[in-house]
Amino acid sequence: MSKVTVVKKNNGGTIAQNKRARHDYFIEEKFEAGLSLQGWEVKSLRAGRMTLSESYITFKNGEAYLFGAQIQPLLSASTHIVPEARRTRKLLLSKREIEKLMGSVDQKGYSCVPLACYWKGRLAKLEIALVKGKQLHDKRATEKDRDWQRDKARIMHK
């Protein structure tokens, strides 16, 4: 008898990251949101053609939207649609999460930015965060801490 092997397709993985947000902001709290996408956008995400730099979250009429993210259309996209790379995309969050985010942004002076886009099973998810801006001296201190941790790891390894 022959043994049947089942190969699972790995759909997990990061599509895009916003490294600039981690550098420019203190991350206070993270949330996971779904994305409302069109068919051509999902195909482009599977090809890894998304950019999150210079994107942010806006709130309008009790709903959250991703503004400024770019999804490049594939060359093989359908001809009967006009793909718009920088369109505003609706975020899928619970009402309680949206109210919490809106309250923090309006009253406490936080900003809301996307950190990463990734696959969770067959669904595309967006990791968003409440953030506070860093001053220049804060960025220098963070870089100094990171360098010290790296040097300490090298010393301990020897």
UniProtKB/TrEMBL annotation:
Species classification: Bacteria, Pseudomonadati, Pseudomonadota, Gammaproteobacteria, Moraxellales
GO molecular function, one term: RNA binding
Domain of life per record: Bacteria
Location within or outside the cell: Cytoplasm
The protein's name: SsrA-binding protein
GO terms, biological process: trans-translation; trans-translation-dependent protein tagging
Biological source species: Acinetobacter bouvetii DSM 14964 = CIP 107468
Pfam family, one: SmpB
GO CC terms, sorted: cytosol
Similarity comment text for this entry: Belongs to the SmpB family.
